[in-house]
Write a structure and sequence with these properties.
The chain has a 6-stranded antiparallel sheet, with no helix packed on it. The radius of gyration is 13 Å and the shape is globular. It has one domain. The two termini are about 20 Å apart. It has no helices and 6 strands.
Length: about 60
């Protein structure tokens, strides 16, 4: 798993969802129009740190 990185180093590709950290919460977010947006929401987030999403867990007997 990645380590938390300063928000200034986050990729600005709107296609890449990232795990974001604020002093109050974590959220999956993406960058668009100069702002970080919470995925599945109309809310802007003021993140301080980021990391790539981890790989999903492997589940025996299931395919994705």
């Amino acid at each position: 798993m990645s380590e938390w990185q300063p928000i200034e180093t986050a990729p600005r590709d709107e296609q890449v969802p990232l795990l974001m950290w604020t002093p109050h919460a974590m959220a999956v977010a993406y960058f668009d129009n100069g702002e970080w947006w919470i995925l599945g929401s109309r809310s802007v987030i003021e993140a301080t740190h980021w990391m790539f999403l981890p790989d999903p867990p492997k589940v025996q007997g299931k395919t994705t």
